[in-house]
Design a protein that fits this description.
The protein is α+β, with helices and mostly antiparallel strands. A hairpin with a 6-residue loop joins strand 20 (643-649) and strand 21.
Length: 690
């Protein structure tokens, strides 16, 4: 059902300002009268031309006239289920885009978007008459034949549309406007078909509108879906808004006080009241319970420059009481859908809390229209920029989430997998950015992504052999979640036949990772990596000789032992404690045993190092499993003049092996060189003190 049919009593101010509603009957009569003389625009698209000229005063409207003539003649005789001539649909879609500020090429393709699908017009005809770009956009929006794809027609249509969007975002702009007009006029459909279309709109089209930043379309789509899928909650929300209409609204007075403050501060600003749409009111009522008068809208402050945004914020926070928890800076850190604004809230002396959005006028245009507001993303390439060919031109509006989607959709084995993966991808409403430790750039991932997701985003199928990761320099497991701004170094096994563990699917959040892991597990039913190797006793090698420590305790005649837990060496800061038998055990001061001893009331004994520098130390080496690794490590240790007192090799775990060596060094100064030599052994990725 349409918004008008569902909500006939809705207040006019709740409708988005400037959004004209088409008189479909008038347009239908104009369409039936046929094209206008060649020296003027047809009456049916005069409103489109007026909206377009508001954004592009110098636009050439001749191409729109030709597109309308072709669309009207090809659709002539076709009727919509609502009874209007079919031409009213492409006209309505084109008007929606014209009001958002779409450029001429988008409007031309919008007028023609159903001609190839529903009439005898061919893509070759569109190309010959309007050029390659219009042809590409029309083809991108055209559905695949149901007779060829059967039940998979809808997901395959979306796959085709998204691939085309990867090359030209204007394809999805037209699809979103197309769905909005269809949702406005959905009341003529059977209830079950309304629900099916509304669910697809909710799961796919609304998230896409959010990601492309087209808030004007997203909010209206949300309200229309809300009315169909949740009629009782919608009616309750409608009743709340209707009841509020007769109450005193505190927002106009607050807005006027804002204007006075900003005028006195010399900041040129426009302060507007933005009524919340139905879904927003519903969310606020669920969050806060009983609604106050200021909860039905927000204050929007529009200024000229970025600096004015922060100046406005400072004035408002100085003259009013800010609600600190409500402050968000989306100018310094924009959302991944191009959105930029400052969000805050202020409390009035009488207890009202007003939410405030501060942005520039250009930010406002982008916030409302998203990628549509960016005009033609290919204008630079078309102008013949030096060194740039048609094959090399790239869409500057193509965001990271779309690149990820285009990558994994190629690996989706069937339409069902693609459809379910697409919905799961779009359900992620936040994105994080992590940085590669090798300086190779950044990775965009959904919030909650783990090192497994980062591995497949960076290495593709080579990530099957990933055995660990360093996050911000610290070794961590692959299932560890990542946070925005983390630096990630992924560790790959040298064995090309390595595969993922079965439990990786439990920790993979991106479709790319899940599809790749599932595919590998299906093709290797008996070859999945296990989390733990089969139980096996550690391999231990004990040296034939060892030397005493060179620490001296300030306790006459007391024997001194170096603690095996932390193996101190010169010039470590150390502390000694008397143990049973009168011996003094020496620990590094940062050893946990020192804190434990002191918590038990043990008094430490002063310890210093002898002038002689021979010492004993325990090192732990982390490595990938490979043949002859133990021999290569012991050879490297021997070359540095160290004696092995004992060595322990733990069983492999996910192809990682840990070696523990207790070594006698002739001089503590050789320790850094020894550790470097061990790290240089192929397969070893970390060496540290025990």
């Amino acid at each position: 059902m349409s918004a008008e049919a569902t909500n006939p009593d809705a207040r006019p101010e709740l409708r988005r300002r400037g959004r004209a509603r088409l008189d479909l009957r008038r347009l239908g009569r104009a369409a039936l009268l046929g094209p206008a003389p060649r020296d003027r625009l047809p009456d049916a698209i005069s409103h489109v031309a007026e909206a377009h000229r508001a954004h592009y005063p110098d636009a050439d409207l001749g191409v729109l006239r030709r597109a309308y003539v072709l669309a009207e003649s090809s659709h002539r005789g076709q009727m919509r289920k609502s009874g209007e001539p079919y031409i009213t649909h492409p006209l309505a879609v084109t008007l929606i885009l014209a009001e958002l500020g779409a450029e001429t090429t988008t409007l031309t393709a919008s007028l023609l978007h159903d001609t190839v699908e529903d009439t005898d017009v061919t893509l070759d005809q569109v190309r010959a008459e309007f050029g390659d770009e219009v042809c590409f956009i029309v083809d991108g929006v055209t559905k695949v034949e149901k007779i060829d794809y059967g039940a998979a027609a809808e997901p395959e249509t979306f796959r085709k549309m998204l691939v085309a969007t990867g090359n030209d975002v204007r394809v999805m702009s037209i699809k979103l406007a197309d769905r909005l007009h269809n949702m406005r006029t959905l009341g003529v459909m059977r209830p079950e078909k309304q629900a099916r279309i509304a669910k697809v709109t909710r799961d796919v089209l609304i998230p896409l509108a959010e990601r492309l930043g087209v808030q004007a379309l997203k909010t209206e789509l949300e309200d229309l879906v809300f009315a169909i899928l949740h009629p009782e909650e919608y009616e309750h929300t409608r009743a709340l808004i209707a009841a509020h209409a007769g109450d005193a609204d505190p927002l106009p007075a607050i807005a006027e006080s804002f204007r006075v403050v900003l005028r006195e501060a010399g900041i040129q600003a426009e302060v507007l009241i933005r009524p919340r749409h139905f879904v927003s009111v519903h969310r606020v009522s669920r969050k806060r319970g009983e609604l106050r008068g200021s909860d039905f809208g927000r204050l929007l402050v529009l200024v000229g420059e970025n600096a004015d945004c922060y100046g406005t914020l400072g004035e408002l926070h100085t003259c009013f009481t800010p609600v600190v928890s409500e402050f968000k800076d989306f100018i310094a850190v924009p959302k991944f859908n191009l959105y930029q604004s400052l969000h805050t809230a202020i409390a009035t002396p009488d207890g009202e809390v007003a939410e405030v959005i501060v942005r520039t006028r250009q930010m406002h245009r982008v916030a409302e229209a998203g990628v549509v507001a960016l005009g033609n993303p290919y204008a630079l390439a078309e102008s013949g920029a030096a060194g740039e060919s048609d094959e090399e031109r790239t869409d500057p509006t193509r965001p990271g989430w779309l690149s990820r989607l285009l990558d994994w959709q190629q690996s989706a084995p069937d339409a069902d997998t693609f459809w379910s993966s697409l919905r799961a991808e779009l359900a992620q409403d936040r994105e994080i950015t992590v940085f590669r430790a090798d300086g190779g750039g950044r990775l965009g991932l959904p919030a909650g992504a783990t090192c497994i997701d980062a591995a497949y985003a960076q290495h593709g199928e080579a990530a099957h052999g990933c055995i660990g990761a360093r996050v911000n320099g610290r070794l961590t497991s692959l299932v560890s979640p990542l946070a925005d701004g983390d630096t990630v170094q992924l560790l790959l096994a040298q064995d090309a036949s390595s595969g993922p563990a079965a439990n990786w699917l439990d920790h993979a959040h991106t479709p790319a990772a899940r599809i790749a892991i599932s595919s590998w597990l299906q093709s290797h039913p008996d070859g999945a990596r296990t989390d733990q190797a089969a139980p096996r006793a550690p391999l231990s090698v004990v040296g034939a000789r060892g030397k005493g420590g060179n620490a001296v305790a300030d306790l006459p005649d007391a024997p001194v032992r170096l603690a095996g837990c932390c193996t101190p060496v010169p010039p470590d800061d150390v502390a000694g404690f008397v143990v049973r038998g009168g011996a003094v055990t020496v620990h590094r001061v940062e050893c946990p045993a020192v804190a434990q001893m002191r918590s038990l009331g043990r008094t430490s004994v002063a310890v210093h190092w002898k002038a002689t520098a021979d010492c004993r130390v325990t090192l732990v080496a982390e490595s990938f499993g490979r043949p002859h690794l133990l021999a290569d490590l012991t050879e490297a240790i021997s070359r540095e003049g160290a004696d092995i007192v004992s060595a322990t090799v733990e069983p492999p775990n996910e192809q990682r092996v840990r070696h523990r060596y207790t070594l006698q060094l002739p001089d503590a100064t050789v320790l850094p060189a020894l550790m470097r030599a061990m790290r240089d052994v192929p397969g070893v990725y970390d060496v540290g003190r025990a």
